[in-house]
Specification:
homodimer; 603 residues; alpha+beta; Butyryl-Coa Dehydrogenase, subunit A, domain 1; 3 domains; 53% helix; globular; Acyl-CoA dehydrogenase (chains A, B)
Chain lengths: 603, 603
């Protein structure tokens, strides 16, 4: 079963042969670690994926969370899997020793998560949210809050959520209306409605720590406009006293579940804060503590969001990857039709994979999902560098490059991992369209990823509207340097020289279009086709990483099936995918104006 | 509600302003018809769509057919809707007067079906299959069979199915194993398993007429190999005597339901023929009558399949279209965010449609779904011409062109209508991912269409491997002529001249790549990247039809919102879609060899 979840060989190649993760062990932050300990930890993730997460993945889909008006019921296997995960120490794997963590490098932890997400995206989401929540609190909250909430989260006793959107404010957080009213004791009472809260209510943990964006009213009772008025609050489902004892239910109630297309294992709901249902009216309001300073809520939340965005990309890559492995397995075992050259209709049929068009679909999937996985682990490695490189310049550069790449890390796997899932259905034919097989669930689960944590369109605006110009384009220059270095390494290697030339041309073309866009004073015009820019940028970045992988494969000087498969996927990407670039860049310079100029009434 | 199903304005434009369907009334086959009668009939389809089909569309999804081991239960609304449809005379709308039909032109009937499919694809599929089944029998079966089965189908009392695939033979019909053993009385007894039978078992009609592909054993009991050995049989669920009275259950039993990702309103199952469950063993075998001549089964079945392929394309266009209208409605009413130029965070948010990127997604949807609808109605009009043009050359030419276009009519809407459904989800954000809204069901329903009635890959082989060379390329020449005529009309019109030039260049490029492919002697090499050829061909054909629509809009000399919307969608297609062509053609000449040369073990 493990071989249908994720390729450990690919993970090992990406982490150790390509990203040289073992070099991290030389840094003081990771003292005492080495490749062997990390391999052993990856074994644990893989084993949990196979034994604890995969077995109830289909049940999560067919038996989604149910709300009877009083309580939410969730499959018991979800809690069992997460307890096994916590018991193995993995909830705190990436956390510092002070809270009982292992201090695992992010790239190792992410790789481990890829196994779990591929096995069961719905169940593992609770852990991802809890860890990101705890990491935010470690970075920004007072010692009291950390002691009260992070410790039990590290032990897997409390889970965490992020509460940003509201029914009227999805992507536009400036418009949130949740109020946080200061109390005499320094705490706050929150009133408002929060939408799309994953893990928002359930009974599989002792408590739930909601991180809630809200606004502190001005003296006249009005709410400050814009994002500057947003603060962040830790609001537990059940109150916790200073000794860490659980007290009464807080004034946070579930108003209804969302019934999703997929990802059904993760309960997702509308929460009402301060409705007063569990207490006398005068005592209404969800009690919360402010995290950090007032008005800094969105900045802090970006700590969690940036982590979540990498997690979304990684999850999308993992779901695409397991779909690919299922399709490959099916294509190798299912027989259908004959070769063109075979004239005898009584000859035995051949395996699907013997048809060139089926191999095309498998190569596309491989190029998408292994490329997406490489992208996400590259980002995780950058994040490790941003925290652990000895020199400040190195740390700052890693941070800048990661910042630039984050919208691509979030969106490219979400789009192309999903495309891989679509192809996996296609390879299965009619069987792929049925719930008796697994691949249609992968598609439905993965369809969430281009939406949450900032839609594709939001990521496009982030990239073109903010990231490429950040720090006077320093991130873009860093990326240029890394791409040039790969091209230099690839150029002398005969089979890669043409790809190196193609990447060089593509990157220069992208830079030139970027410059022309940056020269436009009219922001509306500059950003009108930002989505095409994100598409183009993403494809160039992944082409670079495929070339870089091929260089690493050649450096290892092996010529086994794995190495040949890597080269074939690289060839496929340069032969079939990178040529799409011109269609995207063509609408950016000059800006194709049809979407801009079309009146809403004409549609 | 009607305005969210399909645009009657667009249907009227396509049928009458663009395709000049009213001219059909001048032909003897349609004597007594005119635009007014056709408009009145379209009103009936539209009304049925709104009142009878749409209301239970969601229920079909949430309450799928259930098999308790004895009988299949289906939502009662399905039968009610189909009875209303039959009572209105629509089951026989396109059939000749001899069986009580209205003799409606195919393009009008198809347009009417588009409303029903957009409203409820699952329920209307029973009618589509019944009509296609009856049409095959009218064309190829003996008068006795027609009298016994077609008449009650025309009245909506019997329904029809097509039984081609078997568990071991999906796309490869040469490998079917169902046996048809001749009996003394001239009838046959069938033994075998048929997979993916839509409408295969239910109790909403008095009887079900299965059209079954099977092989007549040789004297030694062996089955003839290849497609030449396939014959076609009419096998009723319940036997019917010569007076049309229903007799005992035939030996056809349901072996299990398939639980699909979508399209759940249409029951789909595995049927066992001749298992002997309903009779003593010596009397086993499903009794059937041969349709036409032995060995001609696949040729006859193509009558139904070609009709079904247009229906699939049309259904995909319709599902894409309703998704587009839902997204447009949502984008006009849901507010979120502000313009770039708006500095005041307290200003009211704007409608989603005011964001350029949302209009891009809406334009893409419009270009896909209205383009797909145009393609399918164009094909239906060709089919009418093939039967009703006064001159034999005209009829033959129409038939050749329709034959050439059929793989595109089947596959382009299936692919891009689905892409439109995906964008409709994206515009809805998180809401679009929930079953509380409609667009995710549209996506799931439509995902069937690239699979059934010949997958995308099969259509690609049909186009490149058969259709372009058919009749020495006569179809391709006819298409060339029609494209050239559109270019000639568009060229003098300033805003369309550049599109005319782009289409001219694209078509010549496609012809040149086609010629280079045809010159390859190695069929394996020639067809390796057939999927890319189908992509490219489809996009050029739809670009042509968009330009042709724009010419028709300009000819009408109106400049209302509808006309401007048509021009904007045409501009979008030429600006954003046609440039994708080079990426597809680039892998065809010379043939990009990665899929061909990749060994299955490397994947």
């Amino acid at each position: 079963m493990s071989h249908l979840i994720l390729s450990r060989r690919d993970i090992d190649f990406l982490l150790f042969d390509w990203l040289r993760a073992d070099a991290l062990a030389e840094r003081p932050q990771f003292a005492g670690h080495d490749r062997d300990t990390w391999s052993a930890i990856l074994d644990v993730y893989e084993k949990l994926a196979v034994e604890r997460f995969a077995p109830h993945n289909k049940k999560n889909d067919s038996h989604e969370p149910h709300f009877d008006g009083e309580r939410v019921s969730i499959n018991v296997e979800v809690g069992e899997a997460l307890r096994a995960f916590s018991t193995a120490g993995l909830m705190a794997a990436g956390m510092p020793a002070e809270v009982g963590g292992l201090g695992l490098p992010g790239c190792i932890e992410r790789a481990g998560f890829a196994f779990l997400t591929a096995a069961n995206a719905g169940s593992v989401a609770y852990a991802m949210l809890t860890i990101a929540n705890a990491n935010l609190l470690i970075a920004h909250a007072s010692p009291g809050i950390v002691a009260r909430y992070v410790q039990p989260m590290a032990e897997g006793r409390y889970f965490g959520t992020m509460c940003l959107s509201e029914p009227q404010a999805g992507s536009s957080l400036a418009d949130i209306r949740t109020r946080a009213v200061p109390q005499q004791d320094g705490r706050y009472r929150l009133f408002g409605n929060k939408m799309w809260i994953s893990g928002g209510d359930h009974d599989i943990s002792e408590n739930i720590v909601h991180l809630v964006l809200a606004k502190i009213p001005r003296e006249d009772g009005s709410l400050p406009a814009g994002v500057q008025g947003i603060s962040l609050f830790a609001v537990p489902r059940r109150l916790v006293d200073h000794e860490g004892r659980l007290g009464e239910r807080n004034d946070v109630v579930l108003a209804g579940l969302n019934h999703k297309m997929g990802y059904r294992g993760t309960v997702n709901c509308l929460l009402n804060f301060g409705e007063g249902r569990h207490r006398p009216e005068a005592d209404a309001g969800a009690i919360g503590e402010i995290v950090g300073e007032p008005g800094q809520g969105l900045a802090y939340m970006f700590h969690m969001m940036n982590e979540a965005r990498i997690a979304v990309g990684l999850g999308a890559a993992a779901l695409g990857y397991t779909g690919y492995l299922h399709a490959l397995d099916y294509a190798r075992t299912r027989t259908q039709g004959r070769r063109r050259s075979e004239r005898d209709p009584a000859s035995p049929p051949i395996a699907l994979v013997e048809h060139a068009d089926v191999r095309r679909m498998l190569l596309a999937q491989k190029a998408y999902v292994s490329g997406a996985l490489a992208l996400c682990l590259y980002a995780a490695r950058l994040s490790d560098d941003a925290h652990s490189l000895p020199d400040e310049t190195g740390r700052r550069d890693s941070h800048l490059l990661l910042d630039l790449l984050t919208p691509i890390v979030k969106s490219w796997p979400s789009q192309w991992g999903l495309a891989a899932n679509d192809l996996a259905i296609q390879i299965h034919g009619g069987y792929g369209y049925t719930r008796e097989y697994n691949v249609e669930q992968h598609y439905r689960d993965n369809r969430l990823n281009p939406i949450h944590e900032g839609t594709f369109g939001i990521q496009a605006l982030d990239l073109l509207g903010r990231k490429i110009g950040q720090a006077k384009g320093a991130g873009l220059e860093l990326l240029s340097g890394r791409i040039a270095a790969t091209i230099e390494r690839a150029r002398p290697q005969a089979p890669l020289a043409r790809h190196a030339a193609a990447l060089d041309a593509a990157w220069h073309r992208l830079r030139s279009v970027t410059a022309s866009l940056q020269s436009l004073a009219d922001a509306e015009l500059r950003l009108a086709n930002a989505a095409a820019y994100l598409e183009a940028f993403g494809h160039v970045v992944v082409a670079w990483l495929w070339l870089d992988q091929a260089v690493a494969v050649n450096a290892a000087n092996t010529d086994d099936d794995f190495a040949r498969g890597k080269r074939a996927a690289c060839d496929y990407f340069f032969g079939w995918e990178l040529p799409k670039l011109e269609a995207w860049l063509g609408v950016l310079h000059p800006v194709e104006r049809t979407p801009l100029d079309t009146d809403a009434r004409w549609l």
